[in-house]
Amino acid sequence: MSTKTAIPVRLWRMLRLISHLLWGVVMTTWLYPRYSRQQWVQATQRWSSTLLRIAQVRLHVVGKPDKLYPPNTLLVANHVSWLDIFAMNSAVVSRFVAKAEIRDWPVIGRMVVNGGTLFIEREKRRDTARVTRTVSKALHDGDCLAFFPEGTTANGLELKTFKSSMFQPAIEAGADVIPVALRYLDAAGKVNLAASYAGDISLLQCVWNIVS
Question: How much is the CA Rg of the chain, to the nearest whole Å?
């Protein structure tokens, strides 16, 4: 990937990004348990918006629900990057349904656990039934949830096959289902692959590409 961003600038952005992620762990660990739902929603949106600014990502939203945390709603999005969660939370805050491996990611894993993410063991068929019940109950209780039906990240140029089982909770809860299309573009309006976390790329390399 070609870039004109100077190395010192990249390193400064990387330092700021890591510091903000660490603050996210602190916030979700010690402050979130004391927050009301409204406080949690507002704090999540502010933190996510700040992360995008640090990463030099400008958010452009076309259409969204009337509420920041619409009750009994399921957001369904394509999956390009680890940034997707925070880009979506900057516009509409939700709890995510994610693959269990994310729990083991450095820093980000701990933060999303503390933030109320629901995890699924995709290799275990029995776990799908458990998550279906959990998600259905959460929607019934007025939560807004989000998931990536592709089950993995893509490069942003194509869609992978959807995992249809996760739509069942929305049917059972009578939830609103809102489709979300995520694209990362450069200044010329062309798809920018820097944010993509697909293939064999490491999380650290993906972060470096973004700050570059």
Answer: 17
Dist. CA 37–CA 152, nearest whole Å? 29
Q: Cα(89)–Cα(95) distance, rounded to whole angstroms?
A: 9
Q: Please tell me the distance from the alpha carbon of residue 197 to that of residue 103, in angstroms, as a whole number.
A: 16
Residues 58 and 149: their CA atoms lie apart, in Å, by: 25
Q: What are phi and psi of 69, to 5 degrees?
A: -135, 75
In which order are the strands placed within the sheet that holds 118-120? 118-120, 95-99, 144-147, 73-77, 176-180
Q: Residue-wise pLDDT tens for the chain (212 aa)?
A: 455 789 999 999 999 999 999 999 999 999 999 999 999 999 999 999 999 999 999 999 999 999 999 999 999 999 999 999 999 999 999 999 888 888 887 777 888 888 888 888 766 667 778 888 999 999 999 999 999 999 888 888 889 988 888 899 999 999 999 999 999 999 899 999 999 998 889 888 999 999 99
> In whole angstroms, what is the distance from residue 163 CA to residue 84 CA?
18
CA–CA distance, 73 with 66 (Å, rounded to integer)? 12
